[in-house]
Amino acid sequence: MIRLSVKVPREHAEVALLDLMAFAPGGLEEVDLGDAVEYVLYGAEGELPALGDVRAAVGDALVEVSTSEVDEVDWHSFHHPLDVGPLRVRPPWHEPRDGALDVVIEPGMGFGTGSHATTRLTLELLTALTPEGALADWGCGSGILAIAAAKLGWEPVLACDIEPESVDEARAAAAHNGVALEVTRCDVRQGGPPAPTVLANLVRPLLLQVAANLTEVPERLIISGVETHEIDEVLLAFTRISLVERARREGNGWAAIELIRAPY
C-alpha cells in the first residue's frame, strides 16, 4: 500500500483540498499539523496520481509532497455506524439498528462515508425537518445525504457532483439502498438542480462562489463544510441574496447551518 502525503500551509488548505479532490473521489485523510495541514491518499502502486501532477495542481501552496510504503490498512477498524435521529449510516459489515432507516455506504466510494463531522451535522438539521417535496444535494459525493433524504421521505431527490466517479458511485449506492435518485454532473460553483430544499456540504471557497453565482434562490438551503471561524463571512455572503439563518449545529470545529428565504 502506498501513502501519498501532501502538506500545505493552513491558510491555503481549503483551496488545496479542492484541487486534490479531483485525484481522490474516495476521500482524503486530513492530519492537523498546527500551522500546516497534511492530506493523505492511499492506494496500490499505479493507482495514485504522479507527484508532478499533484505539484502542478496544488501549485504555490505546496510545502511538501512525498510517498512512502505502509502496511495494508484495516479499513474496517476506521468505519463505524453513525446514528442520527431515525437514521443509521453504516458500512456493510455493521448491523442495521432495529427500527432505524438504514443507509449503507461502502467506504472508499465517492467523497463522503459519514465519518466527517459535517455529514453528521447536516443530517442533524435534515432529520429535524418535515419532508416537503423535492430536495437537491449539490456536491453529493457518495450520495450519502441524498440517500438519507430519500429514506426520510423527500421526493424527488436530485443530486449532482462535478466528479464523474462520484456520479457513478452515488447512482450505485442509491440502487444498493433501494431509493430513487436523479444523479447528474454539475459545477456546484454555479449551483445545481433546482429544488425548494437544497443541501450543500462543500467548503468555504465553493460556498462563497455558490452565493455569488446563484440565480434561483431556494426556499431552504442547508450549508456545511464551514469551519466555525468562517461562519460570519459565509453567512454574510448568503444574506446578500436574502437567505438568513434559521438553525445551526456545531461540532469538532465545524458547522452546518440551515438558511431560509428572508420574509421580506
TrEMBL record:
Pfam families: PrmA (PF06325). One of its GO terms (biological process) is methylation. The keyword Phosphoprotein does not apply. GO terms for cellular component: ribosome. It comes from the Bacteria. GO terms for molecular function: protein methyltransferase activity. SUPFAM superfamilies: S-adenosyl-L-methionine-dependent methyltransferases (SSF53335). Keywords: Methyltransferase, Ribonucleoprotein, Ribosomal protein, Transferase. The keyword Cytoplasm does not apply. Gene3D superfamilies: Vaccinia Virus protein VP39. PANTHER family: ELECTRON TRANSFER FLAVOPROTEIN BETA SUBUNIT LYSINE METHYLTRANSFERASE. This is Ribosomal protein L11 methyltransferase. It comes from Solirubrobacter pauli.
